[in-house]
Each structure stands twice: as C-alpha cells, then as structure tokens.
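Feature request disguised as a bug: please show the residue count (905) next to histidine kinase in the output. Example input:
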Amino acid sequence: MGSVGNGWPRGGGEIGELLRHPAFHAVGLGPVESWPASLKNIAEMVLNSRQPKFVAWGPDLAFLYNDAYVPVFPQRHPDALGRPFREVWADIWEQFSPIVASTLDGSSQLFKELLIPMRRDGRTEDTWFTFSYTPLRDDDGTIAGILCAALDVTDQVSAKRGEETALEELRVKSEALAVVNRAGAAITAEPSVERLTQIVVDAGVTLTGAEFGAFFYNVDDGEGGSYMLYALSGVDRKNFEKFPMPRNTKVFAPTFEGEGIVRSDDILLDPRYGQNAPHTGMPKGHLPVRSYLAVPVKSRDGSVIGGLFFGHGQPGRFSQATESSLVSLAGQSAVAIDNIRLFRAAKVEIDQRRGMEDQLRKLNEMLEVRVAAEIAERQQAEAALQQSQKMESIGKLTGGVAHDFNNLLQVISGNLQLLGKDVAESGRAKERISNALAAVERGSRLASQLLAFGRRQPLEPKVVNIGRLVTGMDDMLRRALGEEIEVETMVSGGLWNSFADPTQIENALLNLAINSRDAMDGAGKLTIEVGNAFLDDSYSRTHPEVTAGQYVVLAVTDTGSGMMQEVIEQAFEPFFSTKPEGKGTGLGLSMVYGFVKQSGGHVKIYSEIGEGTTVKLYLPRSFQSEDRITNIDSVPATGGTETILVAEDDEGVRTTVIEMLTDLGYHVLKAKDAQSALTVIESGAHIDLLFTDVVMPGPLRSPELARMARERLPDIAVLYTSGYTENSIVHGGRLDPGLELLSKPYTREELARKIRHVLASRTQRRQGVSDAAAPVPKHPDITDEKLKLLLVEDDAFIRMDTAEILQDLGYDVIEADSGERGVEILGQTVIDIIVADVSLPGMSGPVFAAKAREAFPSVGLVFATGHSSLPDASRLSGSVLLSKPFSSTALERAVKTAVQQRPVG
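Example output, currently without the count:
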C-alpha cells in the first residue's frame, strides 16, 4: 500500500480523504505529516476497519474516527474530525469523563449495553451501546490517547425488552387459555372447519329433512368475498366442495350482516335454471331451491363468523320449530368455531411461549453461571483481602518489635565489639565474643526477614538491568551451591530495565537458589532465566492483586522433588518450612514475597511432584536509563577526626555508639532526642555530621531536625539510623531520594564505612556547588535573569533537598507546602516554571496546575508522582512527567524539557 501527499497511506474511505487534505489540522497534533509514527499506525488501522472506531490522542484528545463510525453521530460529521473529545461529546461528557480518565490512567474497560442519552435530530433519545476503551501508548511508552470500538445495540436491546413484555403477557393469557382448552376438549381434541361443517350440515339435514344444507364460514378469499362449505342431501360428503358465494347475492345480506334470520317459504324460479330471475333477485347460477332458511352464527363477542343455510326444492318446508332447532344448532356451532379459533391462536401462542421458555431457561442457566462466577470472584477477592489484612497485621507487629529488638541487638553488638579490643590477648574470650556476635547477626537477619515479609524494610530502588546483575552473581552462586549443581543462566535480548533494590534482588535470587539446592539434595540443574513479560487484563482478573502491564521476569527453575499444591499455597507464609528441624527458619520465601510485593511486582510458583519447581519474580519495567550503582563496601573502614552529633533516645545504644565513634577517632557530641540535638546545633558548635535515630520521642521529628540543621549549618552531612523506619523517611516502601540510612544493628566496620561514605559525598557536593559557581554555558532558554521556579511539595524534607538541587542548577526557587499556598504565591509574583507533586493534601497538583495556567498561560509544568501516568495533568499542553523517586539528573532533564515545551503566549 503506497503513500501519497503528506505521507499518509491510501485507504480509509471518506475520512482518509479528509485527513489527507492539506488544510486539515487536528487540535494539539497539527497536520498528519507531523504526527508520531505510533499515532499514524493506529489511525491507519482504525480508518480501514469496518467496525465503528475512534481514536482520541494528544493533550486535547483530538477526535479521529472512521467511516463506520459516522452513522453514530451523522449530524456532528465532519465538523467533529480533529476537534477535542470533550467538545465533540459535550452533551454526554459528564457521563464519559470518568471512563476517559480511568483509561488514560492505564485501565482497559469494556461496557455492554450501556444506556447513553444521545442528542439526535434536535432531541435527546435513549440509545444503547457496547464498547471497549483501550489506552494507547506513544513511541516512548507514555499513554498518549485512547482507542474505542463501538457497537450500536439499540435495536437488540429494544427487541429484548419487547420479548420480556410479551413473555409476561403470554403468562397471563396462558392461565386463561388453560381454562379454554379444558372447555374445548369436550367438543374435539383438535377440531377443523371441514369436520365441523360436516357435523352441522348432517345434523341440520336430518333435523329439517332438507335436500341441501350449507355452512357459510367467513374466510376472506383475497378479493373481499367468502367461501361456502356445503353438502347435498343424499350425496357423498367425504369431500366438501368450496363454492364461492356470489358478491351480488343480496338475499342473504341480513344474515351475513348479523341482522337476523332470512327465510322464504316459496321462491318462484325462472323455469330456465341458470338464467336470472329478476322478480326473485336470484342471480344466475344460484342453487335451485323453493324454500330456505339462513341463520347467522355469531361469536361470543357478537360478531358474525358465518351462517347456516338449508334449502329444499319444495315450498314451505321449514316450520317455526325447525327454525328454533337451527338457531340452537347455530349457537353450538358458534361455540365450536370459537374453540377452533382459540385453539389455533393458543397453539401459536403455546409454540411462542415454548420458544420464550427455552430462551428464559437458557437465560436462567447463563444467569446461574454468572452468579456462580461472581460468587467465586467475590470469594477470591475476600480471600485476597484477608491475606492482605493478615500481611498488614504481621507487618505492624514485626515493625514495632523490630525497633526495640534491633536497639537491643545494637547495644549487645557494640559492646561485644568494644569488649573484643579489651580481650585481644585471650583466645577463648575472643572465640566466645565471636560466637555471640554471630548470634547477633542471626538475630538481625531474622528481624530483617520479618520486616521484608511485612513489607516494612527500607528499599533503595535503582533502575537496573537484572540480566547484568544476575550474570555478575554467577561465580558467587556456583560457590554457594557447590560443584554438584549445574547452573545455567539465560538472558533474553533487548531486555528492559527494571526499578528495584539491586541488593534485595541479589538476596532474593540467593534465597531461591539455596532453596532449590536443598530440594535437589545438593545435586541437579539450576536454570536462571531473565526476560521481558506482559501480564494482560485477563491475567489480572484471575489474580486481583496484580496490575496489568509490562514486567521483567526473573525465573529460577530446579530439577528437585517439586511441591504439592498444599505446600505451594503456604510456601510464602512466615515460619512455614518443609525442611528438617534446625535446617531453615521458613523466612526465605517470605522475604522474597515481601520484597517483590513491596516493589510493585508479582510472584508465581509452578511445581509438580517429581518434576521440579519454577519460581517467577515479576518486577515492574522502567523506561529510564540504568543507574550507576556505588559499592559502599569499597570505602575503607577507617575513622576520622570530624565532629559528629549523635541523637539517640535509647541510652544503651547512645553510650555504645559514642564509644565506637570515639574509638574511631571522631569528636562526638550527644543528644537524647531531636529537641536536645537542635539546642546543640543552635549553640554554634562546629558539626560535620548529624547521626540521628529516625524514631525518637518528642514533638520534633528527625526529618524536621535534619531540615533545620541544614538551614543553620548548610555544609552538615546527615546519616539516619533505625531498626524500623515507619514512614518518616520511607514512602511506598522506598527510602526517600538523597537520604542515607544505616540500619540497626550494625558492626563497627559498617559504621566506619558509612560515616566515611556520607562525609565523602558531602565533600563532592560542596565541590559541585563550587564548580557551579564558575561560569558555565547557559541553557538556551535561561537568560541573564534567573527563571523563577515554584516548587510545590508537602513533604518538608523532599522539598528541602529538591529546592537545593534546583538552586544549584541556577533557578530562583520559591517553596510552597500546599496548592493553596502556591495559589497565594501566584498572586504575588511572576512564575516561569512549576514543579508540583501530584498527590498534595487539599488541592491536588493537577488542580493547582490548571489554576496556574489560567494566571500564566506560558508557565512550564513538571509533575512529580510515583505513578506511571498523569490522567488529569496530561491534558495540559507541555506538561512533563517526573517519576518518583528521581535523581538530580532526572530532575534537571525534566525541568529543561518543561522550559523548552512551554506554550507560547
């Protein structure tokens, strides 16, 4: 399929021609040749589809549809092409706005037989549509629009509702019909007009002695006439003839019209039979009779349904008694005719009812299946909720215990290490101290595993290539597993990056490998695979805890004994183990489970008895470039001469750490809580590093202490320590960016390395500030006057660090802790750039940004969020997404992009 004109492929019918016109521009997208490749591909698919479809794309959701969609809104075509979605469907936007927002947030949706009040021909009418909404991604993976496939099912819904009404009417009629059928059964099981005619005529002839008898039954002949069924006395009546009643026969008109009985005792016939006899009114071809009786047959409602006619070749053959008998016979025949009609109608209705009952039965069966599925889905959701609540309870319990437990371990560990120096000459004492320290390490590991399972460990996620990480562990795994285990590692080409804590990935892989080794009794094959994976909506429906999307999967497969289903269901529970007593704590898989869930991922076990086991870890894909990981173990475990302020509420821990730091050569100041530490800082004492516990009593929290310390001592370094971080410096299970944490309990060597690392980082940052003060090439959009940047962030510590980075980048930074405060600032000064958190308390980031654009239409916008998309803010042109946690490089890149993409005017 070739291309024409502006590079747009041929095809697409009338809409394709409109899009290829040189004058066509879509709002927010411009002409076709400027569209991204992803949009062109999607638009080509939609235009050539026979199913009604549309695409809404870009910051204003430009509306693009195909020829099949035009009948949905003929009066809006072609003006709707390329206009904003919101304007095209302004009359129903309130109904569809939440659906559009949810789709732009990454959720695919299906709606069946949705009632939509549609504006057509100047009036609003009820219509029903079945449609699906699917998020569309741009070339860089960002959600840029939506795809909708629609189907007008108004006729089907109306028909179905009519059938339901008819079914109810039929039910009412059937009750009466049963009574009618029982009454009619006394006459005949299945009567016919022919059979009834024969019975009536035979009875009439016998009763009257007539030579001729007939039963008129008003059956339309298609030309307005009627048929007459008749029999002649003394002839074979097995086959009745149908004789058309002449239209110009006026003699029997009163009978047909229901006015009464027509009789004649003496008709003078023309001697020439077959000729007209004007004096009698008899037409040519009339039957040769001298006397006759015609009695109307009336239905129950009084309408004439036929008549009885008896004739004789002799005059005066019918007496009054005979007439009365014929009237009675006519009444009986009327009942029979009514029964015949009712029977026929009932048979049709019964057939229809059976059909409807079959449909109703099928609907009931489908309903039962759906109810069963809904019940099963609800039970599954309730089970997932119970499991989640159990996890949360265990997490809270372990978190509270871990804080005090780790403090105790820190006191024991620190004093044992200090004691080790005092008994350096005693071999037995050193051995005992070593054993005690090993027990401390096991206790620390146990607390760490419990925190991991409860999703309370402070993660330090990075953008990593898991394939490279796993390959680098090859030698360590082979040493840990032994020579009898064959290890094979396979990494797929084009592997995506993932956002997770690399140390925890290594721990998880090591735990899985050791479990596999034990399952194989020390001999077998271990296969490690790393690849890309997509978990779709159907998988997410059967696994409610999973978010559909792109993942990097790490799979560990062994050739061991496998697991039974009961074991698989309990494998991730803490302290559950199938190993012999003393061979395992039952926390290895629990730790893996907690880490993956805390990272936003998914874990799945596949196993068969005798066939081995595969454990798959799904970690979310990252679209950012890989971070450089620094190995702190490379920092020497040496001391120094700097001044360190220790803020620790636990007296035993405080005494121990002060002695350890003093032993390393540092000058140490001490404080029992955050308020006391602030008093020391404000005293004017020289302090190089603040070493503070995260959780301390008192009104002043540690993060606020750190912020106030940096305000008073800009060069001070900060190192946190805790056995349990709660949410003070850990958000979403992740350590806030730019912070340093030393988890309790720690060894003297770990303390020494971390102190030197933090102090070295401070020196590098100070040098970076000095370098920034020197003349550097300016960004093309930054003039001699610094751009004013408004930073809106409710977390004080994140706001402080982010503001410092932005100031170092050359921006004039104004801080606000809420959207409401930001609006006040907008009324006082001109703002060029805004960096705003999305989830602000009170007024949200997107709402604030919309108000900012009203005040300053050309302001640049950067939205910081932990989510992967911006359903509301993405409609503001030029806005930039900054995913939390972010590096200084990512922050700088986002702000520069926002400067370049600022709207003109």
